Amino acid sequence: KIGPLVVCVEPGLNPDGAEATLRMTLQLLEAEARARGARVLFARVDARDPELLRAVEREGFTLVDSVVTFHIVMDDAGQLRQDKKPGEYSYPTIAGRDQSFFDVSVHTSELASSGSLEVTIRSFEPSDLARLQHIAKFAFRHDHFHSDPRIPPKVADEVYVTWVKNSCQGRADAVLVAEEPGNLDGVSGFITCRLDRAVLNVAGIPHGIIELVAVSPEAQGRGIGVALVLGSLEWFARHGFRSVEVGTQSRNTQAMRLYHRCGFKCVAFSHTFHKWIAGP
Asked: What angle do CA 112, 264, 238 make, to 5 degrees?
């Protein structure tokens, strides 16, 4: 079992106060984790807080990965649609507000020799689940689950199989899939979208989060990822979201290039730590 550790430290708290807060929180969380049968806790710490980073390490946490967070304001997404130039990715258009699908034409310089890629971005249907789980099983390799040597690769794979299943069953507010004409497997990729309810409750702003983006290995390099991300921005815009964020590992340069091309800007950098705990 894997349980997340969330530590909120008051802004401006001195290093001694931060470490004391972390130590007290860990004692409570580790006791609760043992009672629930959890074996590992993970913490994500802002890279701009070196004192808290050192405090986490002193408490027995080990660095497993680093995450880059990207952000886009929906007004900027609209500007991206207006300012696109020949050879750039085109923004998706919706066939109708009441329809559950829209067509995306992805035009890239890489596809110049073969023309544009026609792909349909639509809402998830229950019959898609097995295909999405298959894609998820092989799509994620840079994450902190796969980076921890104590987590077997097959177990890390199953984390994402379960994650996408939960997303389709209500964890996500939307799951969009990509279909290509003539693709015998049906779905080529998927993206999951949700409302950040914490931001909504605190600031009253509808802020979106892209959680999972995956493209099947055989469909990579054809612009499917771009179509999914731009399609998700269209979904967020249709539902009144003001901004959207997405994170990826610092070593996943392909994903970082994707988000940059879709209009996102890098806004934060954090480190992920794991701590394995003894049983009862």
From this structure: 90
